């Protein structure tokens, strides 16, 4: 009837405070998950509703490129969850905007720390299928240029011209070649020339990097808008920049690489720099999450490397190449990459500010040129700029050639007292080892002829205090033992040293780390280091326990490349930050490292001192995170549960753990949810399909808590590596993890129920909603009819409000459209319940869940763990909806938005 239709005022009253989920179409074909409250635009409290927690320390914000508010100091000191905006203090941040890349890490790391332990936010979940880890390759498969492949079929004149041009600069730029980075490095200057890079003087390289760092710092920290220098063009003309770039670092560009009519101008320089950095396979690709994590390995650790994909002396049989590798060839190549990206960054900033913002007639930018530069930078080069920004913000660069001893033990010198890396004695030993002839050259002559060592460049961190504070915050939040002792030890090493101290901060970070751990790459490969499922790292173990002056042992050591990466602040966005945090913590705790062993499994967990510690990357950690007594921070969980070995029936102790799991069964959809555009909003809109009538909606509510008791009994791991081999590696690889529970209803004996944690499912923390403004006129089980309503942001008379509250009760939640089907599953029946199934929507629109299963796990934390374990056993992700935060209707709609079939209701 006409009376049952809902008016605009009814809709606003009924659905105020209800989140609306949709995808926003962004640049480069990307979709961005968004949550809005369309009926609450005038309610200031709405901005506080979210599904995530803010970062608890400023250093943790290095994990993301998304905009966020700075972390107030009182959060760190007092651990408070929120603070009023007027109490926030502005930190020492940049005073001006810079070139906006429009690039962000995928998935969104801000949505990784949520209101529920072991869960992720909706944005993070939706972006997982299009994550950077699947988009970018750390080492792309090399490919020969198509011209070379058809060389035998070329006419004679064309073949002759091709041979003549093959050794010209830039001949392998934009010609279809995919380089092998290690092979290119070993080729030396002749190979680098083919992508336009000169054999750069190392002194010029370091000096130019520091010059650009200081200049950029001055621009960003300028006192006011009237400062004279606003871009690099205020100090140098375009021709000066051209001369500096193409006489010292790059070869002069060919006409095809420049912009027509601007051969010496800024636009041509930007185009050449972009094309050189975009040469496939020639450089580190920071789009790859592996290189974002491991970039510090090249900066701080000398070869040979015991893990990773770094250049080694065995990659070449040429003793001269092997010598360059040992002198830090790969480190120099990385510094060249940082330099070229910095040159590009300052030019882009100048061209946007002068040519676009100020519309200077001396620098005219056309729209097609902007589009061309965007296409050239797409992906890899944009991440180069992200990396060089972090590099310039975190480190100072200085040239300190031939720094003599002292070197910290366990760092640049080996335990047998061999000479420091890069010294004449070391070079002599290298050449002798590989049969090199030194008949006519003394070690000193060899050093002079060699001319450089990449370790002559000292990278000194600028923010060690903040990074150390973040490490201590992380340790305290996960309940790490001996936190105060570790803090004192690190502070004594990193604080400004008194006169007469052994080493300064620049000397500590300027000394390369050499890992003397007896772990070979063959064993690392066997344990899964090269597979995408496992991420293993060889931590730095100080080898000085046998020295007589043990009290002095490790005094100057701050760990390996993992610790230096974190403490330096050169941390790139992505999940690698959580690995660096835990790795630094373990390297700082020598007792823990000695007991666990150096081969760390950062996507698994470990057992130490009566507790187990799990990464959020591991399904075991995500399931156990809901237990009482669990502490979490930045993707790690400390759990008061010891796993048992299925073979020995004994609890594990002091060991690393890896757990294999299968990916969640794929849906029948042709593309992931995040690429389905408006489909997400249509399937989860609060208004539902069809007409807006009262009969179309119901009011779902939580029933009485289930009368069932659940007790967690054990976690059992099935070890698939032989015991002797496991003992050697200080770790266990499990192909099966089983969670066991005791389930009992009132007055009945308990039943043992076991769930095999087979699938790598996710748990989504529900987005907060706010109770609607309306008051119910009818019983909650009835259809919604035209309601009396009350808006608390309007000024109603007091006696009217009192009368309304006496006659009607406040709406317990938001209405749910009848087409959004759901079914409640009692906790006692969960063990025999199958996963929800999908049905075709018809008309070729794909598949969706026939109904959402609602599992009532309120009452105690173990019930939630029981429900999570069932989800992992059947292979279905779930939305975690706490009754005090999100109503049942909004949880069901969010499950439909995320395209998951389960909602787990949690108590207050």
UniProtKB/TrEMBL annotation:
PROSITE patterns: ZINC_FINGER_C2H2_1
Protein name: C2H2-type domain-containing protein
Organism listed in the record: Penicilliopsis zonata CBS 506.65
Compositional bias segments (type: Low complexity): 408-425
Location of region: Disordered: 403-426
Record-annotated C2H2-type domain positions: 777-799
Transmembrane portions of the chain: none
Domain of life the protein comes from: Eukaryota
